[in-house]
Amino acid sequence: MEQIKSKSSWPKREIGQELSPFPIISIDKQTSPKQSRMEVTVLHAKSGKTLTKLQNLNAKSTIADVKKLYQAKNSKLYPTRQAFKADPKGKVLKDEDILGDLGLASKPTLYFKDLGPQIGWSTVFMCEYAGPLVVYLIFYTRPAIIYGVAAAAEPRANVVHIAAACYSFHYIKRLLETVFVHRFSNATMPIMNLFKNCSYYWGFSAFISYFINHPLYTTPAYGTLQIYGGLAAFLLSEIGNLSVHLCFKNMRPPGTKVRKIPQPDSNPFNQLFKCVSCPNYTYEVMAWMSFSIMTQCLPAATFTAVGFYQMAVWAIGKHKNYKKEFKDYPRGRKSIVPFLL
């Protein structure tokens, strides 16, 4: 006859509690399949060449974890310089994406792309916006250097001073928004884009300011009506642009990448959200259209047209992403131009 097990091996029972006839089995979470170790093979996105193999990962590891391990083997490739894809022709994976949710095969494989040297978005914006401010003010405050001493002695029209004030106001606002308002979803961008963006902003600034501050500049054909009408529209557009930026800020808690469906708030300028996905771009274009009308300056109108094209491309892309990400995204909205685009 088998020896009866000691009472200590049986589950204890509280008074009034019915004892289960089945043994109690505890499951160690560390033995869960999702926690099993995996080795991820990293291939080059273009050539398909094996770059390395990463251990100490599991199904709950994120792409951010992958980037840390990859940097440990390649110290120059800091996380913001790295881009990983589950498919060589697919989209870049986000840092918060989990390996177990990517549907990787039995031999987990990721494709790597070097994004090149990176620079912080705040630094980029400061360079982009400080440059035009300095360039324009050089033409405005030091005309003798640009046009000659004799030409600089000529009297200036009142609209020239108004234009300088508006131009300065716009870029000072941009600089302050960069420091106090904007919350960036991406920490960095390729450093080569800095030179391209600065060339665009700085170059157009010199182009515009050269003509507006020129001694032979011709005032608008419709006089004060055109000047002050354009000024009023410019200021309203700038206020609208700032209102939208503040609304975007309030939708994203500090230190997060939370994305929500943009919705209008109590600010009347933000009611434009009901019509377009990117009203900040809409107000930006309206501001430069108003500036062009106010100054009747062809270079300013050219800058407005080029800017509208670029912002329309960005707005269409963001609008498509909103529709993909949010199934209940409002159908009546357009990208940048109400009811049209």
Automatic annotation (TrEMBL):
Principal cellular location given in the protein's record: endoplasmic reticulum
Domain Ubiquitin-like: from-to ranges: 38-112
GO cellular component: endoplasmic reticulum membrane
Keywords carried by this UniProt record: Endoplasmic reticulum, Fatty acid biosynthesis, Fatty acid metabolism, Lipid biosynthesis, Lipid metabolism, Membrane, NADP, Oxidoreductase, Transmembrane, Transmembrane helix
EC numbers for this chain: 1.3.1.93
Gene Ontology molecular-function annotations: very-long-chain enoyl-CoA reductase activity
Record field: transmembrane: 298-317
InterPro entries on file: 3-oxo-5_a-steroid_4-DH_C (IPR001104), SRD5A/TECR (IPR039357), TECR-like_N (IPR049127), Ubiquitin-like_dom (IPR000626), Ubiquitin-like_domsf (IPR029071)
CDD domains assigned to the protein according to its UniProt record, in alphabetical order: Ubl_TECR_like
Superkingdom of this protein's organism: Eukaryota
One Gene Ontology biological process: very long-chain fatty acid biosynthetic process
Location in the cell: Endoplasmic reticulum membrane
Membrane topology reported for the UniProt record: Multi-pass membrane protein
Pathway per the UniProt entry: Lipid metabolism; fatty acid biosynthesis
Catalytic activity: a very-long-chain 2,3-saturated fatty acyl-CoA + NADP(+) = a very-long-chain (2E)-enoyl-CoA + NADPH + H(+)
A Pfam short name: TECR_N
Function field: Catalyzes the last of the four reactions of the long-chain fatty acids elongation cycle. This endoplasmic reticulum-bound enzymatic process, allows the addition of 2 carbons to the chain of long- and very long-chain fatty acids/VLCFAs per cycle. This enzyme reduces the trans-2,3-enoyl-CoA fatty acid intermediate to an acyl-CoA that can be further elongated by entering a new cycle of elongation. Thereby, it participates in the production of VLCFAs of different chain lengths that are involved in multiple biological processes as precursors of membrane lipids and lipid mediators.
Family: Belongs to the steroid 5-alpha reductase family.
Protein's name according to its UniProt entry: very-long-chain enoyl-CoA reductase
Organism (species): Mytilus galloprovincialis (Mediterranean mussel)
